[in-house]
Amino acid sequence: MVEEGNVEGGNKAVEPDKKPNCFWGPIDWLRMLAAETHWSFVFGIVSVYGISQGLGGALARVGTEYYMKDVQKVQPSELQVYSGIISIPWIVKPIWGLLTDVVSIRGYRRRPYFILSGLLGLVSMLLISLHSKLHLVFALLALTAGSAGVAIADVTIDACVAQNSISHPSLATDLQSLCTLMSAIGALVGFPISGVFVHLVGPKGVFGLLTIPPALVFLVGIILSEPHVPNFAYKEISQKFIDAGKAMWRTLKCPEVWRPCLYMYLSFALSLNISEGLFYWYTDSKGGPSFSQESIGYIFSIGAVGAILGAILYQNKLKDEPFRDLLFWIQLFYGLTGMLDLMLVLRINLKFGIPDYLFIVIGEAATQMIWRLKWMPLLVLSAKLCPSGIEGTFFALLMSIDNVGLLSSTWGGGLLLHLLNVTRTKFENLWLAILIRNILRLSPLGILFLVPRGDPSSSILPTEMLNSKDEAETEAEAEESKNIELVSLINSGDGR
């Protein structure tokens, strides 16, 4: 997701003598962006957001689940823990952000990090795909390294988008829209074909295909147009890190900041994630519906459509609602949509004549739509909590807090599956795990007092943190709060 974008401009107006065209319009739009910025930058957005995160993320999710289930033969509770470990590089995103902002390598600030990201992904995917009997520990290390490569590329392209948004303010929203569009298209294409490729070439073959996205990211590092800055002052790096750390600590100690941060962490951590237990049940031939690889991919693709619908609904109808009121209803509906999983596992849908596949598709779309509606106001709230001067780094820190909450949710869900003895072949207590998860999903309603009452147009930070902002910066912040929700439409199923 784009975390550092300074969204302050509007879309570039269409020239009066040119009529919009549904086919040529997007092509002309891309040409305009390439001409105003640079074609290599646009290629970087397409490669990172569209290919690496969108298409590659969809293939990686389905491929990893089948690899762990069929090749490594792990239990669903273990897979929950391993999924959390793989996501750790996303938790330390502020470190990657500080490195790309502060540490220049051979006179370049962005290109070396794209090259490093591509190498990490390429080597790790090759290791998994070519090794016939890779030990679980090394497979986990390779998957974590691949995740780190995607996270580094994500932060680096975020910085490039922010830099171009500042140098071309009239194109800021165009750049955000391009990022969102590429991610959405990549996911919508990736999920349907992921199951097909798992069926045709197996999970290891999918990892072989996943060498293509990091290769493109590596190519971005080679061709990206970036000014060369020699004689970099490496002696000042440590002081810059110290100054940034002190500024973030001062901000976190403010009650207006740490209270909503605590809510964001707890709201994610208490909503236990038991998706791996459900995935194993989906593919079970005895107690479950025994879905094929292709069906699993299509189900996830419908979830991506639901996420887009949630983003559209928020943008057009809900973006001006007060944070506390909106989060109350969203969290309530989030708990209620979880009951669809309970009805499915108890086979209540069959009593009403609703096939498993149709019921799961409806549930996945509804759950992902509600999840997106929950995620987007938290993005806006996070943008409002960032003080002047360290906006990008502090926003990355807030996203890391959310990711720690998601990690706690994943590991907590794994512990719940383990305690209830939900295994590769035993699903008798899966209904109880779903019921407990649904009850815990409602528990954040009791800590909503931590969320400010204001709406996205109101100020949250104390006056002393806003004094350094001039009028133009204040207006830019207000505009950013209105548009930040367009930044992230498609993530992993947990909104990472």
From TrEMBL:
<feature type="transmembrane region" description="Helical">
    <location>
        <begin position="111"/>
        <end position="130"/>
    </location>
</feature>
<feature type="transmembrane region" description="Helical">
    <location>
        <begin position="394"/>
        <end position="418"/>
    </location>
</feature>
<dbReference type="Pfam" id="PF03092">
    <property type="entry name" value="BT1"/>
</dbReference>
<dbReference type="InterPro" id="IPR036259">
    <property type="entry name" value="MFS_trans_sf"/>
</dbReference>
<keyword id="KW-0472">Membrane</keyword>
<feature type="transmembrane region" description="Helical">
    <location>
        <begin position="206"/>
        <end position="225"/>
    </location>
</feature>
<comment type="similarity">
    <text>Belongs to the major facilitator superfamily. Folate-biopterin transporter (TC 2.A.71) family.</text>
</comment>
<feature type="transmembrane region" description="Helical">
    <location>
        <begin position="430"/>
        <end position="451"/>
    </location>
</feature>
<feature type="transmembrane region" description="Helical">
    <location>
        <begin position="39"/>
        <end position="59"/>
    </location>
</feature>
<keyword id="KW-0813">Transport</keyword>
<keyword id="KW-1133">Transmembrane helix</keyword>
<feature type="transmembrane region" description="Helical">
    <location>
        <begin position="354"/>
        <end position="373"/>
    </location>
</feature>
<dbReference type="GO" id="GO:0016020">
    <property type="term" value="C:membrane"/>
</dbReference>
<keyword id="KW-0812">Transmembrane</keyword>
<feature type="transmembrane region" description="Helical">
    <location>
        <begin position="136"/>
        <end position="157"/>
    </location>
</feature>
<feature type="transmembrane region" description="Helical">
    <location>
        <begin position="326"/>
        <end position="348"/>
    </location>
</feature>
<dbReference type="InterPro" id="IPR039309">
    <property type="entry name" value="BT1"/>
</dbReference>
<feature type="transmembrane region" description="Helical">
    <location>
        <begin position="262"/>
        <end position="283"/>
    </location>
</feature>
<feature type="transmembrane region" description="Helical">
    <location>
        <begin position="79"/>
        <end position="99"/>
    </location>
</feature>
<feature type="transmembrane region" description="Helical">
    <location>
        <begin position="178"/>
        <end position="200"/>
    </location>
</feature>
<protein>
    <recommendedName>
        <fullName>Folate-biopterin transporter 2</fullName>
    </recommendedName>
</protein>
<feature type="transmembrane region" description="Helical">
    <location>
        <begin position="295"/>
        <end position="314"/>
    </location>
</feature>
